[in-house]
């Protein structure tokens, strides 16, 4: 009886050990699209901080900020005090997508926008497409 109990316990212990042939679990790939449409410069500062916070925890996360309407000031060259933060975030892989529809309606040209920008024809369609692809959505601002 003692031998049987010993072997049963020994087998259970060995069976409970992780197999060396098992591949490590793949970490979840995170993708978040941020929607920026406010002229609030405090929201702009908060957004850059939030993006850095996410990247600190998930350094390989895919992050895209879709900028349109009154939020376009965030990506304009003139008077932008966040240019260095935006450039640093771009270097970390963050995409800043500016709405061409907004640019057209506000008579803004690409030479007025930071060179780190990427462009999308319609911001709302970009947001919908990202969500259809499974990206999480966060409204930027307060």
Q: Which runs of at least 5 residues are low in confidence (pLDDT < 50)?
A: none
Instruction: Indicate the overall shape.
Output: globular
Beta-strand content estimate: 15-25%
Oligomer: single chain
Give the CATH topology. Hypothetical Protein Ychn, Chain: A
Order of helices and strands: HEHEHEHEHE
Structure class: alpha/beta
Number of helices: 5
CATH superfamily: DsrEFH-like
- Domain module count: 1
State the total count of DSSP E strands.
5
Helix proportion = 40-55%
Average pLDDT: 89
CATH class: Alpha Beta
Give the CATH architecture. Answer: 3-Layer(aba) Sandwich
Question: Nearest-angstrom radius of gyration?
Answer: 24 Å
Spatial separation of the terminal alpha carbons: 68 Å
Largest β sheet strand count, sense and barrel closure:
5 strands, parallel
What does this structure look like?
The protein has a 5-stranded parallel β-sheet, with helices on both faces. The longest helix has 17 residues. The model has no long low-confidence stretch (mean pLDDT about 90). With about 140 residues, the chain is an alpha/beta fold. The protein has a single domain, classed as DsrEFH-like (Hypothetical Protein Ychn, Chain: A). The termini are far apart. The protein is built from 5 helices and 5 strands; from the N terminus they run αβαβαβαβαβ. It comes from Flectobacillus roseus.
